[in-house]
UniProtKB/TrEMBL annotation:
Organism from which the protein derives: Hibiscus sabdariffa
Primary role: Component of the signal peptidase complex (SPC) which catalyzes the cleavage of N-terminal signal sequences from nascent proteins as they are translocated into the lumen of the endoplasmic reticulum. Enhances the enzymatic activity of SPC and facilitates the interactions between different components of the translocation site.
Protein name as it appears in the record: Signal peptidase complex subunit 2
Cited InterPro entries: Spc2/SPCS2
Membrane association type: Multi-pass membrane protein
Family indicated by similarity: Belongs to the SPCS2 family.
Protein location: Endoplasmic reticulum membrane
TM annotation in the entry: 50-68
Amino acid sequence: MQEKKAETGNKNAKKANLLDHSSIKHILVESVSEIVKSRGYVEDVRMSNVRLLIGTIIIVIALVAQFYKKKFPENLFNGVLQLIIYTKEKNAILFTYPPAGSVTSTGLVVSSKLPRFSDLYTLTIASADPKSISAGKPVELTKSVTQWFTKDGVLVEGLFWKDVEALINDYTAEPKKKK
């Protein structure tokens, strides 16, 4: 594993290899998921389950095709899987149900982007059902990852939590009415 718990001071500190783009993104995604869940949102794993089911079907088809002498449609289910990822998931890292006791009827879709060779991390929070009457407007945060990591690669969780919680608060805030 590329990221390790930092040995210095806090044993729960998350450490990333600052030269490895995916290590940085993994630490941030893991932390975002932790923060959103701590706010009372429960993860909606239905999309993951659909992907696993389609993946299992693909494997079964591949096994049958291995021993069946006729030609099979090679990439039909792979195409379906890619279509689901492209249209539904996009850059989503977390789908949630609404928190218990909430007046909104939709959960969240949390998306993140960290382009290769860039230090700008973009985190977006939107409604899981944008057509719902209780859906809020999507909110976005773009910030340099250098704001959240020390020179040794340790995530300064307090700063990151503050930024992510402020973004969640922006999303859940009542829209201001114009007079």
